[in-house]
Amino acid sequence: MKHRSLRSSVVVLLLLVVGSVSAVLIFRSSNSVEKSEEFPSLINATIEILTEGLACKKFTSVDLVKAYLSRIAEVNETVHAVTEINPDALTIAAKLDLERSAGTIRGPLHGIPILIKNNIATKDKMNNTAGSWALLGATVPRDATVAKKLRAAGAILLGKANLSQWANFRSLDSSNGWSSLGGQVYGPYYPNQDPQGSSSGSAVASAMLGNRDRRFDHISFPAQQPSWHQTKHLVIPISEHEDTVGPLTRTVKDAAYILQAIAGVDTRDNYTSAIPDGTIPNYIAACKLSGLSGLRLGIPRNVIALRTSNTSAPMIEAFEQALDVLEAAGAIIVEDTNFTAAAEYRNSSLPLAVAGADFVVNLQTYLKSLTYNPKNITSLAVLRDFTQSFPLEDYPARDTGLWDQSLQSWNNTDPRFWAAYQQVLYYGGEGGLLGALDRNNLDAVILPARWAPDWASPVGTPIITVPLGSYPSDTPVVKDSWGLVQYAPNIPFGISFLGARFSEEKLIGMAYAFEQRTMVRDKVQPYILPTTELADVVIKKHI
Ligand SMILES: *[C@@H]1O[C@H](CO)[C@@H](O)[C@H](O)[C@H]1NC(C)=O
Ligand SMILES: *[C@@H]1O[C@H](CO)[C@@H](O)[C@H](O)[C@H]1NC(C)=O
Ligand SMILES: *[C@@H]1O[C@H](CO)[C@@H](O)[C@H](O)[C@H]1NC(C)=O
Ligand SMILES: *[C@@H]1O[C@H](CO)[C@@H](O)[C@H](O)[C@H]1NC(C)=O
Ligand SMILES: *[C@@H]1O[C@H](CO)[C@@H](O)[C@H](O)[C@H]1NC(C)=O
Ligand SMILES: *[C@@H]1O[C@H](CO)[C@@H](O)[C@H](O)[C@H]1NC(C)=O
Ligand SMILES: *[C@@H]1O[C@H](CO)[C@@H](O)[C@H](O)[C@H]1NC(C)=O
Ligand SMILES: *[C@@H]1O[C@H](CO)[C@@H](O)[C@H](O)[C@H]1NC(C)=O
Ligand SMILES: CC(=O)N[C@H]1CO[C@H](CO)[C@@H](O)[C@@H]1O
Ligand SMILES: CC(=O)N[C@H]1CO[C@H](CO)[C@@H](O)[C@@H]1O
């Protein structure tokens, strides 16, 4: 039950994924040389590369959407990463192509396809279900603010990424990446790989571009978890105090572009009012090779020591090697910046209780906002009844243990909530990340990604994770009770940079400087990759 350490966090995800259809491949062999010269390979294309191709009319957004749909179709049977496709994606792409040819460019995301997680509401033909039959067909009054901002920035919402049902907040015993509606998502680095985290589909989709650390994305943070910079309005919640919306992308710079578009004050989400001066730094400009120069990075060795097992060795070894890279890039490594409450936090049941107390109330608020609620799901209690009696929800094989606990306990309007929440704030704050940053005068704390997310979600601080390495070829294959592969050769892992609240700009700089010096994503390849490329779409168009 590794993922039971809770932490929610919701993820938006830059698409650029998958797929291909054999029928369009007829021209492939004869054109392969010319093709690779003319078109960027979709596994490696960044937002900047795609934007350049769009700008010089090498291809259109319609071509891009067609190519990605084809790539998704190629692999969806194997990895189940995408729940549904936006039926209007091609129409939207055509409109954005027209705008572009008329000289209107909304910004760097103009005409770029993006997948969003299936708990971010959109007021269009797509469902927002958190992977449950309970919400199929339900409608919302408006786009989630994040979706609205992405649209306004010119992004094409291509589809919804499969996720762990209710962002993994239902059962005490279920598998990562499973939902009644979406089925089981698998990781792309080993057959039947546990996709981890609730953002399973998002991460798998972006991993198939080659870059994302999938392995330890757990519930909380997928790849980057920003501060409360992003509005959560109309995102199906777990916990208002712990959820965060963030991008999962192929590269650090791509994440910076997405974050730039979605960050900012939203009057519909009070948490965003904490943004200093209400202003957002330039995250793209923060992507500098000098991003590590002169910065103090602490290692809380006791956090790593607390949860070390025989499967940790390759991660820790790669982490130690990364320290040399960080130092060579000008960082100052500060050893033993231990978190004073690490052991106590690990033992505590309060973090889960706080999330459950939020869930009862926050879910009800979301359900109340629906403009059409076909199954009349109005509260967690009703949702539990539905889930336990609807055969496709796979109850009791997958229980509702977390809901049972939440419904038995106090909720976040109870005075006991505030005492518990203060204690959780202490674990993540003075007793955890914030205390270590402060005492040691650090710019960030670094950890192998597996150990990182627990320390950010309670205090609303950002994390950015970049690929670090992968399990070696002699790794014994370990499966969980659901048959999901937990450890196996080639399964990647990451390194995380954790900073103070609203330190995204600095963290992005560090992650970029590390990524550019290591380019681990080029060394770890999924075992399955789609083959459709832009050439297949563009050349076909001209025949
Ligand atoms: C949303 O769910 C409904 C079923 O209620 C289905 O008919 C529709 O096709 C779904 N939308 C998409 C985009 O798949
Ligand atoms: C923000 O807080 C104010 C004051 O507590 C409250 O009236 C308002 O409804 C809140 N808004 C949201 C979107 O939660
Ligand atoms: C930090 O924790 C590590 C691992 O538990 C321990 O070896 C080290 O002595 C601690 N350092 C300090 C300064 O307490
Ligand atoms: C770790 O130990 C368990 C048994 O305790 C074993 O099943 C597994 O194969 C070991 N994994 C590695 C990577 O050595
Ligand atoms: C955590 O729990 C273990 C096992 O119950 C106990 O031995 C240990 O003292 C506890 N640690 C703290 C810091 O509470
Ligand atoms: C939260 O708890 C209070 C007090 O027990 C109760 O009146 C209220 O209905 C609960 N809220 C929800 C959403 O269940
Ligand atoms: C939901 O409630 C409405 C109005 O009370 C009712 O007409 C409808 O049959 C209910 N639907 C379900 C699935 O229970
Ligand atoms: C993507 O880039 C990597 C690293 O440069 C390279 O090995 C790989 O062949 C590229 N993929 C394609 C499809 O061009
Ligand atoms: C989105 C998508 O392409 N889904 C496809 C996944 O595979 C099944 C079976 O081949 C198709 O029916 C879906 O359309
Ligand atoms: C589009 C896509 O890949 N969706 C998949 C989500 O997962 C379910 C089942 O696991 C698949 O049937 C869908 O095709």
From TrEMBL:
Record domain Amidase: where: 63-208, 235-448
Signal sequence, start to end: 1-23
Lineage top rank: taxon: Eukaryota
Gene3D superfamilies xrefs: Amidase signature (AS) domain
Keywords, ordered alphabetically: Signal
Pfam family, one: Amidase
Protein name, entry field: Related to amidase
Organism, as annotated: Phialocephala subalpina
